[in-house]
Amino acid sequence: MLEKKVKTKKNDENVDEVVYNRTPRYTVKDISEMTGLSKHTIRYYDNENLLPYVSRSDSNIRMFSDYDIAWLKTVNCLRYSGLTILQIKDYIKLCLQGDDTIIERAKIIFQQEKVLEDKMTELNTQLDVIRKKKEYYEKLIKEKGIDRWNPFNEIKNEGGCLTASEHKK
After folding, report:
1. So where are the chain's domains?
2. Which of 81, 83, 109, 133 could form a disulfide with 87 if both were Cys (CB 3.0 to 4.6 A apart)?
3. Under 8 Å CB-to-CB from 142, ≥6 apart: which residues?
4. CB 56 within 8 A of CB 24
5. What does the alpha-carbon distance between residue 92 and residue 75 come to, in Å, rounded to a whole number?
6. Does the predicted model carry a pTM greater than 0.85?
7. How far, in whole angstroms, is CA 19 from its chain's centroid?
8. Rg of the chain over CA atoms, in angstroms?
């Protein structure tokens, strides 16, 4: 399983940086079990060169290190946050170019944060609608009423809807 040999050290700028063990020792199957990602997704990310440091065994089996797992988690997060594979490739190219690209990479992350915040706002709005609809149905079930939101049940009688007893007449 994933070993907790993560060290934190201080660099000259007094910024904490995490150093992961780079010893390759996990297979695709291991990584899949550890992360919950499918083996197909892990292989796909590697085939798309989104995991730049994955090693291969003598028999050409992908071997991952703790460091590779950190990359994989970042790539997966970026993907599920809405970045395309091409955008992730661009981000990784910037990473591989070194610290001269920190500002460009930060812009990507800041922009994606805004995208996710907007999505969360929209999802919360939709969740409010669903909760109101749920509340409506719970009341409807409890009171054994007629669903007035259902156009099928919307039988007009001189400008108004019929009650349940009127509907059965």
Report:
1. 7-97, 98-169
2. 83
3. none
4. no
5. 9
6. no
7. 24
8. 26
Paired tokens of 143: 């009171």
Q: State pLDDT tens for residues 60-78.
A: 999 999 999 999 999 999 9
**Residue 162: Cβ within 10 Å count:** 15
> 7-97 is classed in which CATH architecture?
Orthogonal Bundle (1.10)
The two structure tokens encoding residue 7 = 């060290």
DSSP string, 150-169: SGGG--EETTEEPPHHHHT-
Which pair of structure tokens corresponds to residue 134?
């749920």
> Tokens 């661009």 — which residue?
90
Q: What is the pLDDT of residues 95-138, one digit of tens each?
A: 999 999 999 999 999 999 999 999 999 999 999 999 999 999 99
